[in-house]
């Protein structure tokens, strides 16, 4: 499995907003299955970032095609060489 950073560009209209609940269901399923590590959408621009696991770029694209919003998306998919975050660290020890 490889790790990818997907940058999603989109425009919002009324139909887009109506499809968001179904889209969130797809995203939640992909998170539960370990396909998506993180998912973030900008509050200021029509842009989002998704960190995903997959065999190759076509696998990543196929997973995102499940979204009812896919036709709104312009994607940039980059394979990551290094990915580090707080979740991969040991928990901080708290002494009571």
Structure explained in plain terms:
The chain has 96 residues and is α+β, with helices and mostly antiparallel strands. It contains 2 helices and 4 strands. The protein has a 4-stranded antiparallel β-sheet. A hairpin with a 5-residue loop joins strand 2 and strand 3. It is globular, with a radius of gyration of 15 Å.
Distance between the ends: 40 Å
Structural class: alpha+beta
Shape annotation: globular
Helix share, percent = 25-40%
Number of strands: 4
Strand order of the largest sheet: 2-3-1-4
Q: Output the number of helix runs.
A: 2
Low-confidence stretches: none
**What is the residue-mean pLDDT, rounded to a whole number?**
93
CATH superfamily (homologous) name: Dimeric alpha+beta barrel
Q: What's the architecture in CATH terms?
A: 2-Layer Sandwich
Quote the beta fraction.
25-35%
Indicate the CATH topology.
Answer: Alpha-Beta Plaits
* Whole-number count of domains: 1
Rounded to the nearest angstrom, the radius of gyration is 15 Å
Biggest beta-sheet profile = 4 strands, antiparallel
Set down the secondary structure blueprint.
Elements: E1 2-9, H1 14-32, E2 36-41, E3 47-54, H2 57-64, E4 74-79
Antiparallel strand pairs: 1-3, 1-4, 2-3
Labels describing this entry:
96 residues, Alpha-Beta Plaits, alpha+beta, four-stranded antiparallel beta sheet, 29% strand
